Amino acid sequence: MYRPRDTRRAVLSGEITSDLRNYTVDAQHIGHAFAALHGLGVTDLQALIAVMHGERRGEPITPGRLGEQLNLSSGSVTALVDRLERTGHIRRDRDTADRRKVFLRYADEGARVAVEFFRPLGARTDVVMERFTDDELEVVHRFMRMMVESMRDHRDAVRAARNPAE
Amino acid sequence: MYRPRDTRRAVLSGEITSDLRNYTVDAQHIGHAFAALHGLGVTDLQALIAVMHGERRGEPITPGRLGEQLNLSSGSVTALVDRLERTGHIRRDRDTADRRKVFLRYADEGARVAVEFFRPLGARTDVVMERFTDDELEVVHRFMRMMVESMRDHRDAVRAARNPAE
DNA sequence: GTCGAGTATCTCGATGGCCGAGATTATCGA
DNA sequence: TCGATAATCTCGGCCATCGAGATACTCGAC
User: Fold this and answer.
1) Which residue of A has its CA nearest to B72?
2) Model confidence pLDDT, tens digit, residues B78-95
3) Does B106 reside within a domain?
């Protein structure tokens, strides 16, 4: 069936947009179901993931930065960290250099949950990626990188519209 | 700099995973900031988007399906719809065939907000897509489609682990 | 070295979204 | 007509979240 060039592009564009939306919605569903399965709130799981990412990168996350990532006030972060510390998922670690700071590290229980969350996800991702060549994955990466950059700009624009004085 | 084939793949894989995570996090930030800018909760904006999608597809969404999408109990959905109806964003519409059902349609205020949310996003997306050929976008779409399918399977698996009796 | 401004975290009271069991209204098949 | 099922709504209770103020610490200026 014939389809003019513009139309093909327009359809593709819409499909990809739809893909991205479906991906985020499904990701939220997985988070919700997994959290409930482990007796956690959705926020708690997100926090656990953020803590893990911090350690992986060699820069443990602080409560302040955690609050920014999760869109939480300082009070909520304290309560959140208290919860996760009480259940043995993470622990607080005072910085020796700047003793105002607190580093969040995952404890045994947190590492266990994180692995259980990411391993099957990684396995599924690998299966998908096997069906693409290096060059194709390069294209995907280039696309996603640009999308993220664009989204981040937009995020900053919306935030600026909210607090014009900053 | 030389890099063996396996390593290149491993790096690419990790980068793309990271891209996807960054994308979802940034999308949440945008939703949060935009919602606050319009005096809405995050859930309310998500609901508005879901309602709009339903109308676009010609199948208006019902409170029940809205609750599934947002992971909300029936009681929360009623409160949510009440809020949005009171503020003039959406309205309830009884189905004439099956009068148990309620269709959710957006009212003037809802349409206005939805457009204001999506237009700048669409503009930014277009800019990114202009820098890719049709074939490249086709690759991206194929990748995302497979990822979504895989995520959905995983979601169902996690949900099944939670309620083994269903 | 000490004062003040700035930064990071925590405390605490109030609020409001959310859950979940039960009630209500409607459809459908026997 | 009746029972089973489905979709939505009501209501009481809970808990995560907000936000202003308190606390603890750092750092530069004088």
Assistant:
1) A32
2) 999 999 999 999 999 988
3) yes
